[in-house]
Structure formats: structure tokens, C-alpha cells
Amino acid sequence: MPSTTSDQPAAGVRAPLRETAVDALKIVIVGGFGVGKTTMVGSVSEIQPLSTEEVMTQASVGIDDASRVRTKATTTVAFDFGRITLNSSMVLYLFGAPGQQRFWFVWDQLFAGSLGAVVMVDTRRLEESFYSIDRLEHHRMPFVVAVNRFADGPALSSVRDALALSPEVPIVDCDARERSSCKTVLITLVEHLARMHDLSPVRESTP
Amino acid sequence: MSTIDASRSTDRNLDWLLENLRTKTPGIRHVLVLTRDGLKMCYTTGLERDGADQLAALAAGIQSLSLSASAEFGDSIGAGQAMVEFAGGLLLIVPAGAGAHLAVVAEEDGEVGLIAHNMNELVEQIGVYLTAAPRQAETSGERP
């Protein structure tokens, strides 16, 4: 895999868009509340990510169930935005969707023009990803499932069964905090898209 | 202090002040106070509960994007005033007390200057009551 971006942490990094970039792919990152969507965009983006995180207020007690994500103090209220260059010609524009139901109306706009999606899953709260998968299947949008490993959990094959995924849908482990791990997820998605859309494979860096 | 936890009388006073803003300003259809994480706190009577939920969520999104815009292009970081114009109406949002925003839906031909002036005046008067405190950490007793 030709890595054209540095592996520096994303914070504060301003990488100008390469002039050779010709293929821009819009990718959405979806999933339930608190599964790590914002973290993923933040760790993998080569530009300072746009983040719309707001402090969770007392009004959210009883509405946003943070009981299983105790350290969570902020939540996305619009969307996250980041960018990553995969090779000299291909650049991904990443849009992280907000997780809570009251912001689902944003999803339609985020889905417009998107070529594919990453569904982030926390195996302790699998049921929170059902809506994302239903919605993507409804839109007929190709996706991969990324299991954000917060702790030891069931094997990927069990998660696949529990989510009733079609055999062609890729499922991978990931650590949303790790840039290289997130990048692997995105490459898996692009390769999946290439298979489905007959795009040129990611590994061929220039036409 | 959060108005969510406020006594009933304070709530009623706030409701009255929001109603007062609506009736004294020509063109205002709805007034709503929302938390920065997108939940309704109080609103005027003409607004349905579902409409209030929707307005709270989208206004929080707009204000959060405004904050990002100020960070990228402004001199200092802070959510300013936002205005959205659409067929059949206007939406104006200004920061209220800590953690809260004040949103107004007005008629298309509403006088923006006057509406914004009256909104800011209200925040000056009672912004201290229009706050939403950050959520407390979960109680340690439940910790596994």
C-alpha cells in the first residue's frame, strides 16, 4: 500500500490537498451513540477535522444513555468532517454522522453523493447499529462494518451473524484511536467499492 | 443552575418572558430555548412538542457549525448569531446563558433587526436563568 500521507497524529496537521488528486470519494461514518465515530474522523484525518462536539448537558440525562460510555462528556450535534489521501490520486472526504436519534435528520444530507459508508459497532451495544445498517440497506449504499474494540468481545464471525450481514459485506476489527487502524478500515471500504463499482483498485496509484 | 431543575414558578416566569418576546415583536412565530447538545428547555405555546424537539436539534447543529466557522475564519472562537432564510420563514439563533441558545422562528417578512435586538435584550435580562449545566459524571455506585 503506497502511503502518501505522513503518520503524524492528525491534531494540528495541515496537509494541503495534493495537486495529483483526481478521485474524490465521499464516505460517511455512521453508527450508534458513543461508538467512536468522531474519534475515528479525528485520528485518521490529515487536516484539522471539523468537529461539532458539544458538552452534554443535564437535560440529556434520561435521553442519551451514557451508562455504558461513562467517560463520554461531549456529543456530536451536526457532523464531523475530515480528509485523507490514500494515494497520489485518491482522496477520501469523511463525514461522521451524529449518533442520537434527534439528529438523524442530518443523515439524508450526509448520504447525498456518498459512495460508501463505515458502520462503527460496539459489541456491548450491538443493537445501536441496527438503525444504521437498515438505513444503508434502504439507500443501497455499500458499507463495511468496523468493530471498535473497547474490550475483549465476541469473534467477528459472531458479530456478523448477530448483525445478519450479507456474506459480501466486509467486517473488520479496529481501534478508532489508531490512525493506521482507521486507515485499514477505509482501505477495506474502498476495495469493497472497487469490487462493486468496478473502479480502479486502490493499489494502482496512478492511471 | 439549570432551568430543567428550576422551580415551577421560575419556569412559568421564563415561559411568560418568552411569550412576551413573541407578542411584543411583530413577525415572531415561535420562541425556543435549547441546550447546546440539542434539547428543548422551554418554548412558546404555539409550537408543538415535536416541532420543539426538531427545532432544538437543528438549532444546536447550526450553532455548533457557527462555532467551527468562527474558529476557522474568525478572530476568536465563539458561536455568534445565526440567521437562516427560507421560503416562508426565518430562523434566528443567538447564544443565551452558558450552555444554551435562544431560537426564534419568524415570518418571512419579519424585521430582522428588531427581532434580533429584542432577542439579545431578552438574553441580557434573563440569560443568567437560560443556562444548561454540563452533565454530572454517572454516580460511582453503579460502576462495575
What is the averaged pLDDT score of chain B? 86
Task: Find the CATH topology of chain B.
Answer: Beta-Lactamase
Poorly predicted residue ranges of chain A: 1-12
Number of strands of chain B: 5
Number of strands of chain A: 8
Q: Helix/strand-derived class of chain A?
A: alpha/beta
Distance from N terminus to C terminus of chain B (CA atoms, Å) equals 30 Å
InterPro entries (chain B): Mycobact_SerProt_Inhib_Rv3364c (IPR053141), Roadblock/LAMTOR2_dom (IPR004942)
Domain Roadblock/LAMTOR2 (chain B): 15-106
Protein name (chain B): Dynein regulation protein LC7
Protein name (chain A): ATP-binding protein
Question: Care to describe what's here?
Answer:
The complex is a heterodimer of chains A (207) and B (144). In chain A, strand 7 (143-148), helix 4 and strand 8 (171-174) form a beta-alpha-beta unit. In chain A, helix 1 crosses helix 5 (179-197). In chain A, 24% of the residues lie in helices and 21% in strands. Chain A has helices at residues 37-44, 107-111, 130-139, 156-162, 179-197, and strands spanning 23-31, 53-55, 74-76, 80-85, 90-96, 116-121, 143-148, 171-174. In chain A, the strands form two sheets. In chain A, strands 4-5-1-6-7-8 form a six-stranded mixed β-sheet, with helices on both faces. A two-stranded antiparallel sheet of chain A has the order 2-3. Chain A has 207 residues and is of the alpha/beta class. Chain A is globular. Helix content of chain B is 40%, strand content 22%. Chain B is globular. Chain B starts with 7 loop residues before the first helix and ends in an 18-residue tail after the last helix. In chain B, strands 2-1-5-4-3 form a five-stranded antiparallel β-sheet, sandwiched between helices. The longest helix of chain B has 25 residues, at 49-73. Chain B has one domain: 2-Layer Sandwich (Beta-Lactamase). Chain B has helices at residues 8-24, 49-73, 112-126; strands spanning 28-35, 40-43, 82-86, 89-95, 100-106. Chain B is an alpha+beta fold and 144 residues long. Chains A and B meet through strand 2 of A and helix 2 of B. Chain B: InterPro entries: Mycobact_SerProt_Inhib_Rv3364c, Roadblock/LAMTOR2_dom. Chain B: Residues 15-106 form the Roadblock/LAMTOR2 domain. Chain B: This is Dynein regulation protein LC7. Chain B: It comes from Nonomuraea cavernae. Chain A: Belongs to the GPN-loop GTPase family. Chain A: GO terms for molecular function: ATP binding; GTP binding; hydrolase activity.
